[in-house]
Amino acid sequence: MRTTDTFRQYIWLINVIHRAGRITFKRIGDQWMTSSINENKPLSRTTFYRLRQSLEDMFGIHIECDEQHQYFISNPESLRNNSTENWMWRTLTVNSILLDALSVKDQLLLEDVPAGVEYLETIISSIKCRHILQMNYQKFSDLESYSTVVEPYCLKLFHQRWYLLGKNKYKEGRLSIYALDRITKLDETEQTFELDPAFDANSFFKNYFGVFIGDDVKPTRIVLRAYEKMIPLIRTLPKHISQKEIATNDTYSDFEYYLAPTFDFQQEILKEGQELEVIEPQSLRKKIQDELKNALKRYQKK
User: Fold this and answer.
1) For the structural domain made of 3-101, what CATH number should be given?
2) What are the residues facing 157 on neighbouring strands?
């Protein structure tokens, strides 16, 4: 069986059990026979248990059986929020759907894949083995790349770019962010490092909107006012995990956040134009006002 067919079976089984909540083996088998992945064979218990074990080994998704002989996902939190399992599940689901849609490929308009993917395998290997990375990196503001040594801590996908968070040996051991598409050369060394036992990737980025980090911008309470068309968009696609709707009426809704108002969060506000207004804090409101005024000056030039 081709690898793509096997992954389609994984995805199919997750989706069947996830949608049902709890489901018997017979009902799983019935749906198997009406699917496009059955290879004209009924679902055997051997195949079912193989798929079940593979899902646990590869994705950490646990399928258990209750006293009524119904199967269910015992750790459904793995398929929620921003977990790696959730991202992989949704990505593989889309890939499986697209494989069945090649006949209408000219009618599917997709975004470019994230840049820098050619370095993912090396970086993930280094994270797993605690190996130091030797790389050449070129900032957008620099004409040439520079060589550096980095202890890889975690990877983050943001706005179609992969970023590496790592401890830079030449920057007093500070954690820094590197865009993978700005790496010009990358090698995994045999030299190992000790990961800070207190480090947790989710906790580290909890108070940031994207990937911009820095000690000079501290987390604070922020209130944004969304107008009319923007309200349902923010409700269904929150700007940050801390988002809370604290007030609403016929013309606007106020959303509260707790995060560091870094450059990328400011850009997120500015891109919404007049549909989004900063209410608090005044320092951020002033910053956005100044940016808008400067933008207007550019358009007023002859």
Assistant:
1) 1.10.10
2) 162
Q: What is the pLDDT of residue 106?
A: 72
Q: Which of the four CATH numbers 1.10.760, 3.30.70, 2.60.40, 3.40.190 does domain 220-300 have?
A: 3.30.70
Sign of CA dihedral 152, 154, 157, 159: negative
Q: Convert the pLDDT of each residue in 245-266 to its tens digit.
A: 999 999 999 999 999 999 999 9
Q: Which residue shows structure tokens 């990737």?
A: 201
| pLDDT band of 152, cuts 50, 70, 90 | very high
Of the chain, the end-to-end C-alpha distance in Å amounts to 66
Token pair for 223 = 């209130």
The whole-angstrom separation of Cα 157 and Cα 30 is 38
Where along the chain do its domains lie?
3-101, 117-199, 220-300
pLDDT at 82: 59
